[in-house]
Design a protein that fits this description.
Number of helices: 11
Number of domains: 2
CATH superfamily of the largest domain: P-loop containing nucleotide triphosphate hydrolases
Distance between the termini: 53 Å
Number of strands: 13
Helix content: 25-40%
Strand order of the largest sheet: 4-3-2-5-1-6-7-8
Structural class: alpha/beta
């Protein structure tokens, strides 16, 4: 018996449900079934609403209840049986899943890959607004402040979500490009944030002018590698139109207090930065570095002894109008000096990040 072919699935993410509608229409044909998840009712009723439709019209609808725990986790858990049922009906040869505005592609795709062997992720498409993109990437407004949080524990900010949606996408649809005086610059910004992505502009009606579905572009390993930990071998795009990406490395550890004091200066002018750093007072720990907009965060990644790398610092930062020399000087000033390397008891240094990670 010949094994049944996997059903390709295309995932659509993006903050604006209004802008995604023309893109969603472009992703749908006579052989496609569409699952749309909305979060309009989440703040008031604690539910995510979903609907299933195809070219003939509505098929089914319902709600997922979101409690006080991780809303994204509950959404993913609830979607699995729904998608399984659609595949089992065998009425369509393509699925489009339109995620709620605050959903990141990465955790959703990871579950689809591991839990649904009958589905093959084909394309991850992200809709971005040319008018609001820089603002969304540069601020510190929390999703909760905009009524977009996926549950009570969701403390992400808009910049963090926007960056992560872009970084995992095979295709970025740049809508409202006709309303921007610097559309080419925004294309370069997207390419810096995700060299894997293909940027497709939309026309005045919001319809994409290039392929956004059934591209076969999704590569799980490549997507995970880019969205995960960055290393010095990662690609750094050429600067253009004022968009610059800086790669900073050091084999010396960072002084925790000086780093904490410099955080605001480090993220000034930086749209997005990610990396792995080495703190002097935590000599065995690999520390994740991440910033989006005006917010920076650090967290544990494990032990240096668990990797093939010697302890080091690597940060990749992208900005618009960013001064590479200034940023590198600020980061360099946070490192232990030669005399501190020789004379300090590193683990006695104050830890401003205690209780944070």
């Amino acid at each position: 018996m010949t094994a049944r072919a996997k059903t390709p699935l295309s995932l659509l993410v993006g903050l604006s449900t209004t802008l995604r509608e023309p893109v969603l229409d472009a992703m749908t044909d006579a052989t496609t079934v569409v699952v749309v998840v909305d979060q309009d009712e989440l703040p008031e009723r604690g539910v995510l609403s979903w609907r299933v439709q195809d070219a003939s019209g509505p098929i089914d609808a319902g709600e997922f209840t979101v409690g006080d725990d991780c809303g994204a986790c509950q959404l993913i858990e609830s979607l699995v049986p729904l998608l399984e049922a659609l595949v089992a009906r065998a009425n369509w040869d393509h699925i489009v899943l339109a995620a709620p505005p605050a959903m990141e592609a990465r955790p959703l795709v990871a579950t689809l890959v591991s839990a649904l062997p009958e589905i093959a992720v084909d394309t991850v498409t992200c809709v971005v607004d040319a008018v609001l993109l820089v603002e969304q990437l540069s601020g510190d407004e929390l999703l909760a402040e905009r009524g977009l949080a996926l549950g009570l524990p969701d403390r992400r900010n808009v910049a963090e979500l926007t960056a992560r949606q872009i970084e995992y996408a095979d295709v970025c649809v740049l809508t409202n490009a006709h309303r921007s005086a610097a559309a080419d610059r925004l294309v370069h910004l997207l390419e810096h944030l995700n060299p894997r992505t293909s940027v497709v502009t939309a026309d005045v009606a919001g319809v994409p002018t290039g392929p956004v579905v059934r591209t076969g572009r999704f590569d799980f390993d490549a997507a995970e590698a880019w969205a995960g930990e960055l290393t010095s071998s990662d690609r750094v795009q050429p600067s253009g139109d004022g968009v610059t990406t800086v790669l900073w490395t050091s084999t010396r550890p960072l002084h925790p207090t000086r780093l904490n004091d410099a955080l605001e200066d480090i993220v000034d002018g930086v749209v997005r930065s990610r990396g792995v750093v080495w703190l002097a007072n935590r000599p065995t720990q690999r520390v994740r570095w991440e910033s989006a907009g005006y917010s920076a965060s650090l967290g544990m990644l494990g032990e240096w002894s668990e990797t093939e790398h010697l302890a080091e610092c690597t940060v990749v930062a992208t900005g618009m109008g960013l001064d590479p020399a200034r940023l590198q000087a600020i980061l360099d000033a946070c490192l232990l000096t030669e005399s501190e390397l020789a004379g300090l008891d590193w683990q006695d240094l104050d830890d401003p990040f205690a209780g944070v990670f």
